[in-house]
Amino acid sequence: MELPIGESVESFIQFLLSNFEPIFDGIANILGGFMEGTGDFLLMIPPLFFIILLSVIAWFLANKKVALFTVISLFLIFGMGLWQSFVKTFVLVIVATLISLIIGIPIGVLISKRKRLDRIATPILDFMQTMPPFVYLIPAVMFFGIGDVPGVISTVVFSMPPAIRLTKLGLKQVPEELEEVGDSFGLTPFQMLYKIKLPLALPSIMAGINQTIMMSLSMVVVASMIGTKGLGSDVLNGIQRNDIGIGFEAGLSVVILAIILDRITSSLGTITQRKKA
Amino acid sequence: MEKIQVKNLVKIFGDNPKRGLKLLKKGYTKDEILAETGLTVGVNNVSFDINANEIFVIMGLSGSGKSTLLRCLNRLIEPTSGEVMLGDSNITSLDKKELRDVRKHKFGMVFQNFALFPQRTILENTEFGLEVHDDITEENRKEKSLDALEKVGLKGWEDKYPDELSGGMQQRVGLARALAVDPDILLMDEPFSALDPLIKREMQDQLLDLYEELNKTIVFITHDLDEALKLGDRIAIMKDGEVVQVGTAEEILTDAKNDYVREFVQNVNRSQILTAEDIMIKPEELLYENDGIKTAKYKMKRNGLSSMFAVKGKRKYRGIIRLENLIDSKKDIKDLIENTKTAKPDETLDELFKDMADLDVPLPVVDKDNNLLGIIVKGTVLSNLAGEDD
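^ Those are the sequences you sent over. The predicted structure of the assembly is below.
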């Protein structure tokens, strides 16, 4: 006898589909439109200008070395003819990360306060992180069809846990005595959060943001299997055509994007700790 | 300013404190309740008053419940039963919003490990309490904070960060942060315990200076009896969640209510605590300026003394007259008066030692108007040091 776990999951998904389809369509339309618009806009910008803009940002948020690396490596990507794919992947990662943070950080705040919620959330987060990422692709396609939107959605699911976990961790590590300071001066719970807890948890939250970005980068490649455009689909092309050259070039571009985003966001964590140099 | 009244305050830690409360009423001890229910009695039926504008020290060893008691005053820890009254308002029955208002305006708290925010500058740390006051402009806030920093002697350090300051200076910031909101009551939770002895003494002196100048009630927690005796107008000694004695330093030292307090007091260096006023005695008889030589001789003989102090009028101190000078003298008594060292009433025994050492006559104690208050005889000093009562 077989346990019908797979079947029940399937019927649950079917139930969602048949009852909430308009909602999913709405999400797909809005998200798809937004991403296409942003992608088109960034592609309209001359690559040279875009490269300079990104390295200036890198200079401000990180340092000269990172800025230099950004310029050189982005020219390399441009030179390999992967500029369009790069911009698409860039947009995908940024959008997925933003959604992850918008949902993940408040959840982290919530479960840091409530033990019971935390007990419920922990196994769910474990599940989200260890489930092979390919599995997310199936319901994503069923809900949102193929293309960029299901790619973003499955990326969000996969990359959100570190944002939640590290937000929670950072908030829990705020020394009790400092919370007492807040109480003794008559702070409201909300003032306590934004005046004491969040500033002190910021380094940990920034580490969470960094991790989220790294996880979404690894996911966008997998998402190419459901028609998500970008560097991932170039890698997939390489596999399907047995073309090691194009596969390597696209893979290298992903690595470059990862390094740039990692260096920028990880230095952000140390900057926010103290304003002075 | 209002006085604080603590009435039958109980704090029991654990899952079902009401159960512990019942047992407590039946007369169970702290240990019995712990064994029976697993509940910890933090504060056990404590009542006392804190007068307006006094330094009230709560002293006890760790685990005696003193920090819990302090936190019950502003309800950082919610009391299980009992009342805390501030003037006419009952702190224990305030709702959340009223409680926040009281905390904002009435209480300022200073913490053992300073509890400064590492990412804020000294000025920003000091401004912290005022940031949640709605009725204050940014400039006003800064002005008050700078003012508070100047009071604690940290002018010029505004833009530094806490980790650039020594422990003593960090605690000054903690004090400035509490002073900036201009509260009526300062709650200080072992504020100087983390500091080394020299800095500690310096901070104590500074606190006393600020106290003179500021007109505030200070509730001060410590485990150090010397500190308690130095700072406290009145001292409450706690043991196992109960207040075993409340009184002035003098009362605690000389009239210990039970063995626990006595044992504590035994180790105090009495020479630093007792002052001239505490140990002086009434002179048996005095000479008056216009007494004749004969009268003087007679008075000395009658009392078996070789010297006596002379006063003018009722008790204006003039000096000492020695018997040997009287014997063959034809002079007026006024001309035989010699000047001697005198002591002020608030000088400690420690300070008196030097003066006493090379003196063969008693030491007169005079107040600032030069009235003779009493005399100190060497024998009294020694017996007081030995810790004998009377």
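Residues 137 and 223 of chain A are 7 Å apart (CA to CA). Chain A touches chain B through 18 residues (CB under 8 Å).

Shout if you want it in another format.
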